[in-house]
Amino acid sequence: MTGAGDLIQDSLGRWIKGYRMNLGIKTSLIAELKALQQGLILARDCHMQRLIVELDAKLIIGWVWGNSPNVAITNLIVNHGMLCQEFEAVLPKHAYREANKCTNHLANVGTNMNEYSVT
Description:
Layout: E1 2-9, E2 15-24, H1 28-45, E3 50-55, H2 58-65, H3 74-84, E4 89-94, H4 101-110, E5 117-118
Parallel strand pairs: 3-4
Antiparallel strand pairs: 1-2, 2-5
């Protein structure tokens, strides 16, 4: 089973919202894309306008904010691009896995859940 989780923080690093969910069985890259999608939707629903998106998967940054040679998931990537256009500014940043302890914890908790949970 694969879980997803993410959190939204303000510019001072204070928690605003977070989510966790079970994705079922997915590849790690699909799980990263699904987690990014849910995070963007949550940020939009919280009326955020400027985002710094931190991901530990450099490949996803390249796919969403660059060019994707992966035809099999083009629709999912295009959907992310359309979501990003709803914000005033989105800055993608690579963050090493060790720096994403809260996000990783939420994803691990999500593997044991039956439903989507926002906190």
